[in-house]
């Protein structure tokens, strides 16, 4: 579907994607203008629609692409041989902090995307988030040493409770950022996440 775009030189691809990220972050989906995107990218609107059918297609492609870029780097850095669940979770948190500094524009786009309320893309976007969360959760627990958990616990419920806690924390942070019209303070986020990790470890390990 996007073969024409992928046939472009890497430099031109990056220029178009960076232009789209900039405009979507500044304006949000509904108010983002393809006129602004093509002006920023230095191409014609006809060429943009030659590569992407419309603004929605471009937005969803951009989200998928950004996820792919970040997660490819993320997977390279995670040591899957680490079988201690909370050590792996802690290491993943540190890697996310590193990636945040490596891809600041992409994470700003993610931040805005998570707050997006446009009816035009909401269902498509939520479907992508659900699929990504499910696959990430499966991968997170792959190969962990379950013997370290207390014998009186239902591990499936333990896992769900932790996932719900972190989802709730993320939602609280996004709501606060949206209410105050501020960028997310990621140092504060990761510090709070680390505190939760330590709390869960004490509660669920033998």
Textual characterization of the structure:
There is one protein chain. With 206 residues, this protein is mainly α. It has helices at residues 3-6, 10-31, 34-41, 45-51, 55-77, 85-102, 104-114, 122-140, 155-180, 186-204. The protein has one domain (3-204): Tetracycline Repressor, domain 2 (Orthogonal Bundle). The chain contains 10 helices and no strands. The radius of gyration is 19 Å and the shape is elongated. The mean pLDDT is 86.
Quick recap:
This protein has 206 residues and is an all-alpha fold. The protein has helices at 3-6, 10-31, 34-41, 45-51, 55-77, 85-102, 104-114, 122-140, 155-180, 186-204.
